[in-house]
């Protein structure tokens, strides 16, 4: 009788698909969490930024340092066309995976540091602002922070030229300012937007965020 039950159990186990029969977890699994396999059948489709980066469409690469990472550009950033590179890097701010988060954030910042960056960035504002708006409205807090930092960096470069587009960005900042976690960051960003945007920016900010306290008050 026992022999018959044993054969029945073995027979049932042999008919189960491999996906049902799972090996017991190893202790090392907790120390080495699984990463996304880019060649896996079930891995999600790459984002637009990831696809462009993997094809060499971003003219820089990540260099891993012992203390911190940095970007190595194929050509000096001053020689690069901002259109569409700056917009592509801004789109990458919505990424949540390494190395895309670092490349997009650092690339956006370094591109805006080049000489005559304002002349190159100002014509792109009508296309750049909607991309930043999407990052600022993202549900992921880290994406919002990257978008906020990028907005301040852009404002420092283009100055009052951003004022005509500012109202499209303030609703997301207003919502985050009500959060204890982001209140200080958004207030600091608003003050910098006022500083770089001049007197005109204050009335725009006040129209969307009446509780905002001016840096001049």
UniProtKB/TrEMBL annotation:
Pfam families: ParcG. It comes from the Eukaryota. Gene3D superfamilies: Leucine-rich Repeat Variant. Residues 1-33 are annotated as: Disordered. PANTHER family: PACRG-LIKE PROTEIN, PARKIN COREGULATED GENE PROTEIN PARK2 COREGULATED. This is Parkin coregulated like. It comes from Varanus komodoensis. The gene is PACRGL.
């Amino acid at each position: 009788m026992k022999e018959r039950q044993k054969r029945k159990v073995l027979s049932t186990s042999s008919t189960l698909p491999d996906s049902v029969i799972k090996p017991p977890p190893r202790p090392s699994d907790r120390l080495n969490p699984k990463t996304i396999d880019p060649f896996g059948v079930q891995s999600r489709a790459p984002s637009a930024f990831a696809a462009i980066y993997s094809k060499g469409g971003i003219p820089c690469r990540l260099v891993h340092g012992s203390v911190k990472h940095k970007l190595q550009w194929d050509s000096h950033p001053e020689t690069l066309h901002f259109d569409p590179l700056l917009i592509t890097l801004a789109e990458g701010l919505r990424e949540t995976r390494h190395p895309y988060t670092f490349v997009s954030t650092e690339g956006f910042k370094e591109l805006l540091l080049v000489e005559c960056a304002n002349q190159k960035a100002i014509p792109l504002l009508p296309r750049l602002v909607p991309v930043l708006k999407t990052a600022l409205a993202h549900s992921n807090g880290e994406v919002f922070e990257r978008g906020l930092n990028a907005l301040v960096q852009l404002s420092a470069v283009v100055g009052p030229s951003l004022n005509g587009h500012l109202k499209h960005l303030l609703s997301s900042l207003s919502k985050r300012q009500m959060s204890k976690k982001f209140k200080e960051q958004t207030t600091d960003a608003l003050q910098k937007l006022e500083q770089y945007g001049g007197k005109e920016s204050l009335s725009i900010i006040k129209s969307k965020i009446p509780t905002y306290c001016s840096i001049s008050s």
